[in-house]
Design a protein that fits this description.
The chain has three helices and no strands. The chain is an all-alpha fold. It has a domain of 70 residues. The protein starts with a helix and ends in a 24-residue tail after the last helix.
Length: 144
């Protein structure tokens, strides 16, 4: 036991110092961006012209109004479905249909957002795979 403690005391400071140097070198590499038109470093924003800002606002405003109306219609349909449900399977079908319809609205907005960004020449962040969102990996099966 005392030998392992002695080894830990002997090697810990140089290993910690080497690790600190590596982390500093890697963080310097992460801040450099060889091709800024293609990729934006994390935490930085793209500089937009006033016309780009105005076009983005108009598009997002119309999408928000449209999506809000679509979501309200989906909720009303779901309410009718829930009221008509006679068993647990009917409740599951109602919820599944609601999720499917909300997902379609979200996918439509995403594709329009990508098209707008491409038209304006704005780089988009890379798409995350399934289960790599804010909450971490939710799907333990490997993705091809």
């Amino acid at each position: 036991m005392s030998r392992s403690l002695t080894l830990q005391r002997l090697f810990l400071p140089p290993v910690a110092a080497g690790l600190a140097m590596l982390l500093q070198v890697d963080s310097g590499k992460a801040q450099t961006n060889p091709n800024p038109a293609v990729r934006v470093p994390a935490g930085e924003r793209v500089q937009l012209s006033e016309s780009q800002k105005q076009e983005i606002f108009k598009s997002r405003h119309s999408w928000a109004l449209r999506d809000n109306a679509a979501q309200m219609a989906i909720l009303k349909d779901n309410e009718r479905c829930l009221k008509a449900a006679a068993d647990i399977e009917a409740l599951r079908r109602c919820r599944g249909e609601q999720r499917k319809e909300l997902r379609e609205v979200m996918q439509t907005t995403r594709s329009e957002n990508r098209a707008l960004a491409q038209r304006l020449g704005i780089p988009m962040p890379e798409e995350r795979g399934r289960g790599q969102g804010r909450g971490g990996k939710r799907n333990p099966t490997p993705q091809p």
